[in-house]
Design goal:
Helices cover about 50% and strands about 15% of the residues. The chain is of the alpha/beta class and about 280 residues long. It has two domains: about 10-190, Ribonuclease H-like superfamily/Ribonuclease H (Nucleotidyltransferase, domain 5, 2-Layer Sandwich); about 200-280, no CATH class.
Length: about 280
C-alpha cells in the first residue's frame, strides 16, 4: 500500500433523507477503516432517521421507509460509530462539504460531543477536481478502468472512494502518501475552516472571520463592533448547530479578551495614580 499511515484512516459515506445539512437525517452510514498495517475493517448500518424518507430519495439509494423503520436510530448507534472511528482521520468523496458536516450535526443532535478538531480530513473529490474535474462514477472508470455500478449504496460508494484514492496515489507523483499532506491538498479553500460547514474560517493572521455573505473576510470582532445584531441573527437563522457552537465560543473569547483589557487598563490607571501619590 503506497499510502503511509501514522494512525488509522476511516473512509466513509452517508446516505441521507436529503441534502440539507441542518434538516435532513442519515439513513445509512458505511465506513472502511484502514489501519497503518494495511488491514481493513468495515462498519455498515442502515439508520432509522425518525422521519419520512421522500420517495424520490428512496429511489436513489434504495432504502425504503419500511427498511429504515426496522433499523436502530442514530442515538442508539452513535456510541458504536464513535468507538469504531476512534482516533482515525477521515476521508470521503465531497466529505468536507457534506458528509462530515452532516455527521457532526447528527451527532450533536443526539447529544454526542463530536469534536473532530484533532483529525485530518481528506476529500477525494477535491483531489479529483483539482486533477481531472469529474464525478465519482467518472473517477471510478478513469482511475480503476471499471464502470461504477450500484451507485448510492453507502458501502459500495465507500469502497469505490477508497479504490479511487489508492489509484490517485499511484497515478500522481506530486501526491505525497501522507494524510496531513492529502488533507491540506484536498481543502477547497486557502483558509483554515473553523466550523465543518465552512461558514467561519481563520485568516492569515489567525483571526476568526466570516466566510460567506456580506461580511465575508471580516473578523467576528469587526462585525460585532459595527453590527452587533449580526451575531443574534446567526444564532436564529438556519445554520448548523456546530457553526453556532463555534460562533458562541468565539464571542465568549472576544468578551473575555475585552474584560481582560478593561482590567489591565484599570490596573494601569491605579498604578499611575499610586505613582503620582508616592511622588508627592
Amino acid at each position: 500500500m503506497k499510502l503511509q499511515l501514522k494512525r488509522p484512516l476511516c473512509v466513509f459515506d452517508l446516505e441521507t433523507t436529503g441534502v440539507q445539512i441542518t434538516k435532513d437525517r442519515i439513513v445509512q452510514i458505511a465506513i472502511i477503516k484502514i489501519n497503518p498495517d494495511g488491514s481493513e475493517l468495515e462498519y455498515n448500518e442502515i439508520v432509522n432517521p425518525e422521519m419520512e424518507i421522500p420517495q424520490e430519495i428512496c429511489e436513489i439509494h434504495g432504502i425504503t421507509n419500511e427498511m429504515a423503520k426496522q433499523a436502530r436510530t442514530l442515538g442508539e448507534l452513535a456510541p458504536a460509530i464513535m468507538e469504531f472511528i476512534g482516533d482515525a482521520d477521515l476521508a470521503g468523496f465531497n466529505s468536507n462539504k457534506f458528509d462530515i458536516p452532516v455527521l457532526v450535526e447528527e451527532l450533536i443532535r443526539v447529544g454526542v460531543d463530536a469534536d473532530f478538531s484533532n483529525k485530518a480530513f481528506v476529500d477525494i473529490q477535491n483531489i479529483f477536481h483539482k486533477m481531472e474535474q469529474r464525478t465519482l462514477s467518472a473517477a471510478c472508470l478513469f482511475y480503476t478502468g471499471k464502470p461504477m455500478e450500484n451507485a448510492h449504496n453507502a458501502l459500495f460508494d465507500t469502497r469505490v472512494t477508497w479504490e479511487v484514492l489508492k489509484a490517485q496515489l499511484e497515478r500522481y507523483e506530486q501526491l505525497e502518501p501522507d494524510i496531513n499532506f492529502l488533507s491540506n491538498f484536498s481543502r477547497n479553500s486557502n483558509f483554515e475552516m473553523v466550523d465543518y460547514a465552512g461558514r467561519l474560517a481563520k485568516n492569515e493572521n489567525g483571526e476568526t472571520i466570516y466566510n460567506f455573505g456580506k461580511h465575508k473576510g471580516k473578523t467576528i470582532q469587526q462585525v460585532n463592533a459595527n453590527e452587533p445584531g449580526y451575531y443574534g441573527w446567526m444564532l436564529e437563522a438556519d445554520f448548523t448547530n456546530h457553526t453556532k457552537l463555534c460562533l458562541r465560543k468565539e464571542m465568549e473569547k472576544i468578551k473575555l479578551e475585552k474584560e481582560q483589557k478593561k482590567q489591565e487598563d484599570l490596573s494601569n490607571q491605579m498604578n499611575s495614580l499610586a505613582n503620582k501619590f508616592n511622588t508627592k
